[in-house]
Amino acid sequence: MSFRKDFLWGGAISANQVEGAWNSDGKGMSVADVASYKPNLNVTDYAGHNKITLSMIKEAIDDKSTKFYPKRRGINFYNHYKEDIALFAEMGFKSLRLSIAWTRIFPTGEENEPNYDGIKYYENIFKELKKYNIEPIVTLSHYEMPLNLSLKYNGWVDRKLIGYFVKFSKVCFESFGKYVKYWLTFNEIDSVGRHPFITAGIIPDQCEEGKLNNAIYQALHHQYVAAALATKECHEIIKDSKMGCMLTKLTTYPNTCNPNDVLLSLSSNLGNYSHADIQIFGEYPKLHKTFLKNLGVEIKMEDNDEIILKENTADYLAFSYYMSRTESSDSTKEKTAGNTIMGVKNPYLPSTEWGWQIDPVGLHISLIELYDRYRIPLMIVENGMGAKDVVLEDGTIHDSYRIEYFKEHIIEMKKAVDMGVDLLGYTSWAPIDCISVSTSQMSKRYGFIYVDQDDDGNGTLKRLKKDSFFWYKKVISTNGEILE
Ligand code: BG6
Fold first, then answer.
1. Is 188 a catalytic residue?
2. Most buried of the four, 116, 133, 292, 402, by CB within 10 Å?
3. Ligand 1, closest atom to CA 14?
4. Domains of the chain
């Protein structure tokens, strides 16, 4: 066996990390536009980077520059998209995962009519992709939503958000349905618990004292219902469309065979799965309901929510995979950073400069676990390594560490496919350098394409091909057969 003939090789980007043009052509302010770059924080201090207060937001609203807010400038994909898509095409991309900025279509989320300029912009992108036969995979919500909805309703805590999101989704399906077959509702929906503001617009200051957990799970419930309703609309409006749900795959190992470590890793994995369970099986797992009850969380549901969830489940499961985690019942064990979540250091694994543990076999394990549990097609929509790259005088960038990372992961992915896992595609994060979601750094680079810009926004924005560019091109042209 091998990768299917129509395997969707490609890359993944998100609007708020690449587009820039944060206030052009009628775009409204989003939660990403108030994420500031904090140069003096330890890069692995996710709590520090994700900290948000009402006064920080007000300060950001008053500051009209991009200086301290790198996501406002991105890599100016907004104006460079033709050049960037041509480079993706040169690598032979079969697919590009991208997201639509809600605030380009509905600047505050509450308008009755969409912003025509926003629709036109995405339509141009889809036309450009079509020119090269690159299949778009579109995420409706990738760490970006109208700031207005966050300030006014505390984001997804309020049920009204379901209606606003479904309205936005319908406009997307109606406007872009002729170009887009593969859709995704929420990027890494599980991350509402880890960074509630960028994922769900929840401002902790606006939550009742001691009730943040309630807000998080209520917001999640509203997102599950909204995702189900968007799935229904998608199927009705676009013939043959496929709507996926998405998980951060946080594969967690027990630190030892101490049963207490095993129990901890089991509950951690079940917590991670619960989000996909709800969207794929169409109901809250019984164990998850008990978990919420023990946490003192009571979710307000409406009468037909359970029916909506049951009747509109996801067609495929997409997931990001960067690393594995380790749980230990011994609280003195050394911790390491991860994809916005900490774990105990695994002595068998090397780490990136940001402390993310590199574990290709973990991807193999994840694919087997997920396919065995859900038995629907899978898609790897993010996988990659953040690193500091050096540009030599002749403009070359020798990123052998990145090639090695991808090679090892693709080898393990292939082994899982050979075992029978139904895998639709693989989109690396990110094919072009962009602003880091967790640290807002530019110097945390993931791309096959280098972008000349530093953390402070200085640079020409010139695009340069790294060694990995040529390597990935070869991988795609041989459908994953040649990895050297
Ligand atoms: C994923 C996100 O969790 O991790 C991406 O979906 C993000 O948006 C990626 O960029 C890598 O994280 P970071 O913090 O290194 O940008």
1. yes
2. 402
3. 8
4. 8-477 (3.20.20.80)
